[in-house]
Amino acid sequence: MTKSMTGAKMVVEALRDQGVEVVFGYPGGAVLPIYDEIFQQNEIRHILVRHEQAAVHAAEGYARSTGKPGVVLVTSGPGATNAVTGLTDALLDSIPIVVLTGQVPTFMIGTDGFQEADTVGITRPCTKHNWLVKETDRLAETLHQAFHVATTGRPGPVLIDIPKDVQFATGDYTDPRKTKTEHYQPQVKGDIEVITRLVEAMEIAERPVFYTGGGVINSGDAATQLLRELVEATGFPVTSTLMGLGAYPASGKSWLGMLGMHGLYEANLAMHGCDLMINLGARFDDRITGRIADFSPNSLKAHVDIDPSSINKVVHVELPIVGDVAHVLEDMLRVWKSRGRKVNKEGLAKWWKQIEEWKKVDCLSFDQSGKTIKPQHALARLEALTKGHDRYITTEVGQHQMWAAQYLNFEDPNRWMTSGGLGTMGYGFPASIGVQMAHPDALVINVAGEASWLMNMQEMGTAVQFRLPVKQFILNNERLGMVRQWQELLHGERYSHSWSEALPDFVKLAEAFGAKGIQCSDPADLDDAIMEMINYDGPVIFDCLVEKHENCFPMIPSGAPHNEMLLGDASTQDAIGAKGAVLV
Amino acid sequence: MSALKLKKGLSKHSAYDLKDPNAEVIESHTLAVIVDNEAGVLARVIGLFSGRGYNIESLTVAEVDHQGHLSRITVVTRGTPSVIEQIKAQLGRIVPVHEVHDLTVEGPSVERELALFKVTGQGDKRIEALRLAEIFRANVVDSTLESFVFEMTGTPQKIDAFAELMRPLGLVEVARTGVAALSRGGA
Ligand SMILES: Cc1cc2nc3c(=O)[nH]c(=O)nc-3n(C[C@H](O)[C@H](O)[C@H](O)COP(=O)(O)OP(=O)(O)OC[C@H]3O[C@@H](n4cnc5c(N)ncnc54)[C@H](O)[C@@H]3O)c2cc1C
Ligand SMILES: Cc1ncc(C[n+]2csc(CCOP(=O)(O)OP(=O)(O)O)c2C)c(N)n1
């Protein structure tokens, strides 16, 4: 029997059928009928953000920390355009989110009506797919398809634009089970012949390395389990991108740490010197490869990715495997075991010896002797004091983000939410709100820079209103630190507009919102202050005054290969050549 | 280097199947893309080409299966082998895209384009234009005392050649449909 109902009711019905528990949104004229339906039910919670960009980042945080899609509801025109940064962020980081936008009624489309914007046109390049629904009868089916597309294959953001008359009109509700999705079914099983070739290479490789990425997290718990099993069984070293942290535990004995522009010395040199590189769900981003011509020049490369367009896009690989990480890992393990669990023991022992030498460089060492808190020290203490907690970390974008990646340890997937591909300042605070919604009892900390944090600081209102005890751990260097660092290295120390002036008093700001503010400037007080933050039952702004001119190392200057890494301030003179200077 | 030497061409998903992906030669490929005939699908395809900096030399689109709501987009594009591989993979990611065929590598194919030429002139030039049109098997679809409109179907090269010949004879306007292409044989 078909159910007949208004379009607005269909939206709520479809969300419920898709198992949605939380919607992040902001109302306006073009979505009033949907808001009216939300008012009349209790199953789906609506979190009123203070800016639509924040709704999308909150949904991203929710999605990344649960593996479920995040849902956003905003109005037409400015509501939709405010969501664009979040959509682009989710597209670049492969985060599944479903954004519903209101639109002017169908008969007014194209008339420059009040709050009309060509939402599907504007968001076409920043969504995985989008739809303008012009008939109420098609609405439910489109909503179900949207969830399917967002979460299948390479995940990503989708958007459904719903004109107001479609929300008011009555139509037939389509059940999710009756919705056609067979056309969009990306390949998940890898080519077994190529997998076998990879296993053959693994048996003889002298210097293998696993290079894992966000795709392992996207793939889900099975992928992480299988990765751990394969790494333990083979004894191969493993490194990860920024997006893949936590897939392999930081305490695991094969862990090399993060690789890339601000990655660890041992991880980057292992990538440079390996003879077999096994890329699992990473996309050879330019933060990883540096100068392509010199990227891991002597290795055989395998690449497992669910998106055929990721393969051979940047780096050409000898063993391309299109498929889901978990499915491919399962086959790899099965084939490897059936062939007798062979590895090149002698080669591996030498390789590990070499890696241990690199580790001795101790590239993350820092000197906390003065009276100012070093940002690295602040994070090392945060790590030590939050270790045993059920902890989730989000970040803003800049030096603090890189330090967080370097000094915090992740034992499990989905515990680390950061804007990698787009590098969106203002991501971390709303993301922490989304994470806390999904994990009400967990300790959720946003590691922030003061400049980034200001970009979405209005969300203090959301945190206080919904009693979300998110901790805003601001490493306040009164600088746009990452920009300042580049100006130092690249622009003759001319610090053009890279400092934060007229900063608010963060403690008073917290109090003005009805939250708690803590300031700390003395290394001697740091532990107590952090404990006070952890133990406070409610949102906290922690203003940690840190060394203003600290640079983030290691650093591979743009355009340089992995083995030309800068390890400290002494090595930075003229480090970036003319060719590298045009890169970002 | 250790013993890890492998043959190229191990997977159907690899550019290695075709030729050296690092080769810098620019090739022209004709792609047939089968898509759902829905609003915005052409914008998605065109947006992909402009957004990622790919070339479009020719593009045609029309519904080919009314019941199945399927359209066929024929794109002629140029690029290095690896760029062509990327274009195909990127097209394949678009949700309403069902199939992407590279007619240039999938075996022999036929390519045809329709063109209309307006040629004005009098006297000998007019006679010469008509004579050449016959040789090229172009049809006269409109004529006045001072002008002809010729219609011709053929390969893009043939249409180019005819346009070249007509230019000195009073060619004033050309309209071309772009390439439509199909693979040869029963497959
Ligand atoms: C200031 C700054 C500095 C940065 N510095 C660094 C740095 O030093 N090191 C670093 O690593 N990053 C750094 N980044 C992040 C960087 O920009 C990229 O976002 C990141 O490296 C990409 O990670 P990834 O390769 O894991 O790909 P992701 O963006 O996570 O993409 C995942 C890949 O996996 C595939 N995939 C998805 N699901 C599956 C599945 N189920 N099965 C198989 N494949 C799947 C996707 O198709 C995609 O190709 C920095 C970012 C900023 C803002
Ligand atoms: C929205 C946006 N605008 C500009 C940038 C460029 N940018 C990257 S890092 C950075 C400085 C960030 O400063 P802060 O948040 O204080 O962090 P810090 O680097 O000092 O730790 C800027 C401006 C960006 N990534 N995002």
Give the total of beta strands of chain B. Answer: 9
Instruction: Report the portion of residues of chain A in β strands.
Output: 15-25%
CATH homologous superfamily annotation of the largest domain in chain A: Thiamin diphosphate (ThDP)-binding fold, Pyr/PP domains
Fraction in helix of chain B: 25-40%
Secondary-structure class of chain A: alpha/beta
Identify the strand order in the major beta sheet of chain A: 3-2-4-5-7-6
How many domains of chain B? 2
Note the beta-strand portion of chain B. Answer: 35-45%
First CA to last CA of chain B: what distance? 44 Å
Task: Give me the strand/helix succession of chain B.
Answer: EHEEHEEHEEHEE
In the CATH hierarchy, what is the architecture of the largest domain in chain B at level 2? Answer: 2-Layer Sandwich
Distance between the termini of chain A: 57 Å
| Low-confidence parts of chain A | none
CATH superfamily placement of the largest domain in chain B: ACT domain
Number of contiguous helices of chain A:
24
Quick one: which chains have the greatest interface? Answer: A-B, 39 and 34 residues
Q: Using DSSP, what is the number of strands of chain A?
A: 20
Shape of chain B: elongated
**Which assembly state applies to the chains in this document?**
heterodimer
Subunit structure (chain B): Dimer of large and small chains.
Pathway (chain B): Amino-acid biosynthesis; L-valine biosynthesis; L-valine from pyruvate: step 1/4; Amino-acid biosynthesis; L-isoleucine biosynthesis; L-isoleucine from 2-oxobutanoate: step 1/4
GO cellular component, one term (chain B): cytosol
Protein name (chain B): Acetolactate synthase small subunit
What does this entry look like structurally?
- The complex is a heterodimer of chains A (584) and B (187).
- By secondary structure, chain A is of the alpha/beta class.
- Helix content of chain A is 39%, strand content 17%.
- Chain A is built from 24 helices and 20 strands.
- Chain A has a 6-stranded parallel sheet with strand order 3-2-4-5-7-6, sandwiched between helices.
- In chain A, α1 (7-17) packs parallel to α7 and α16 crosses α23.
- The relative contact order of chain A is 0.11.
- The mean pLDDT of chain A is 96.
- Chain B has 187 residues and is an alpha+beta fold.
- Chain B folds into 2 domains: 27-102, 2-Layer Sandwich (Alpha-Beta Plaits), CATH 3.30.70.260; 109-183, ACT-like. Chain A, domain 2 (Alpha-Beta Plaits), CATH 3.30.70.
- Chain B is 25% helix and 37% strand.
- In chain B, a hairpin with a 3-residue loop joins β6 (139-143) and β7.
- The relative contact order of chain B is 0.17.
- The interface between A and B is large, with 39 and 34 residues.
- The complex binds flavin-adenine dinucleotide and thiamine diphosphate (TPP).
- Thiamine diphosphate is lined by residues 396-400, 423-425, 449-452, 475, 477, 479-483 of chain A.
- Chain B: Pfam families: ACT_AHAS_ss, ALS_ss_C.
- Chain B: InterPro entries: Acetalactate_synth_ssu (IPR004789), Acetolactate_synth/TF_NikR_C (IPR027271), Acetolactate_synth_ssu_C (IPR019455), ACT-like_dom_sf (IPR045865), ACT_dom (IPR002912), AHAS_ACT (IPR039557), AHAS_small-like_ACT (IPR054480).
- Chain B: Dimer of large and small chains.
- Chain B: Catalyzes the conversion of 2 pyruvate molecules into acetolactate in the first common step of the biosynthetic pathway of the branched-amino acids such as leucine, isoleucine, and valine.
